[in-house]
Amino acid sequence: MTGTVKVEGAKNAVLPVIAATIMASKGKTTLKQVPALADVDTISEVLRYMNVNILREENSLYIDAANELKTKTPFEYVRKMRASVLVLGPLLARYGHAKVAMPGGCAIGSRPIDQHLKGLEAMGATIEVGNGYVEAFANGRLHGARIYLDFPSVGATENLMMAAALAEGTTIIENCAREPEIVDLANFINQMGGKVIGAGTETIRIEGVPSLQGVEHTIIPDRIEAGTFMVAGAITGGDIIVEGAIPAHLRSLIAKMKEMGVKIEEYENSVRVIGTDELKPIDIKTLPYPGFPTDLQAQLMTLTMRAHGTSVLTETVFENRFMHVEEFRRMNAKAKIEGRSAIIEGPVTLQGAEVSATDLRAAAALILAGLVSEGRTAVTELKHLDRGYVDFVGKLKGLGANIERVYEQKHNPSNDSMMQSS
Ligand SMILES: CC(=O)N[C@H]1[C@@H](OP(=O)(O)OP(=O)(O)OC[C@H]2O[C@@H](n3ccc(=O)[nH]c3=O)[C@H](O)[C@@H]2O)O[C@H](CO)[C@@H](O)[C@@H]1O
Ligand SMILES: C=C(OP(=O)(O)O)C(=O)O
């Protein structure tokens, strides 16, 4: 594949930022570079349900949360998207009450929210969990606290940072997540009038303020989408430019791809990827940022199937994020799971097959594998893909891929399939 592909605003940055907009009791918020994703629609629906005015025009969202808001979120939204739980901190901080459906597990793990709740309790909240809901109360404003997270959870860091922004006094979150999306959220809160220091390091300090206001903010580029296209360039032995990729956000992927023999040129706001036939095997361990992202594990796995030798991919962030391995085996991959590791023997000639996407990144990875498989591959369950990729098929076609999106039943997108032949 050759050519240039442009990345969208980051899904994992825009979702917490949209949740944070409900803390603005005055003024309106304009968000720019908002990707047209199913997850953005879902969180927009959550806000509308709560009585927030929210309007989308092209890549911008206009949000007015100055009305009195409902402080409850029903299960139907959280079921579609776990990130709905990010309204818990903002609602509790603004209203002293929040009732949010408990997110269940999903295909990648059980995903509890104990660290979110532990932090909110330390800030003075009373929490009740029952009948599938978590309900939190604060007697007046939350107060500042010193919180040590057991694990640098992205969602817990975000929920607590938002709650602390409107709390009385200073909150210190230690062992917090350091992802670029945390920094984007902190920048947004600070633009709103908040006082957050240290985002991007292991300790964040937040001085609470009495109120926050709406502002204009541009969402950072999606490093996971960028990384997915970088792998697409490499696996097809192509030469592609990923525009909007910030190399500093992709250090671990760039290092691993270079170790495999892929040529990568870095520019300020783009990367060029030049594939090779002589891929070397690698060992990878997923870790919180700046370690290798779990959200790129499945995609990079496809590249290891083309490498000459044995690669070991160890998943430490989620306990069950190897559902795609079984699907890859249907495509002739020599792959097995041993404990928390996937062992991949390469190189193999992948064969087209009918496979099913088990989660969002598995969907992208199966499509990447399909690009280099002999014969036709059909990927189903594309509702997962639509959560996190804008026009993935169109963008790959633009780079020269032989791929079509097929709508089998118009009103049930989960039945769609994706086909490609090589
Ligand atoms: C919308 C969004 O930004 N999603 C990302 C976010 O998810 P999310 O915020 O859910 O991920 P976390 O960092 O919270 O979870 C990481 C690990 O910690 C565990 N955990 C988390 C919270 C908690 O209270 N207790 C607990 O045990 C989880 O089960 C998981 O095993 O970060 C993940 C890890 O980089 C990414 O894969 C997701 O794409
Ligand atoms: C796991 C992911 O997302 P979420 O946390 O929204 O399920 C992802 O983006 O790969």
UniProtKB/TrEMBL annotation:
Belongs to the EPSP synthase family. MurA subfamily. Keywords: Cell cycle, Cell division, Cell shape, Cell wall biogenesis/degradation, Cytoplasm, Peptidoglycan synthesis, Pyruvate, Transferase. The modification 2-(S-cysteinyl)pyruvic acid O-phosphothioketal is found at residue 106. Pathway: Cell wall biogenesis; peptidoglycan biosynthesis. The active site is at residue 106. UDP-N-acetyl-alpha-D-glucosamine binds at residues 82, 111-115, 295, 317. SUPFAM superfamilies: EPT/RTPC-like (SSF55205). Phosphoenolpyruvate binds at residues 11-12. Cell wall formation. Adds enolpyruvyl to UDP-N-acetylglucosamine. This is UDP-N-acetylglucosamine 1-carboxyvinyltransferase.
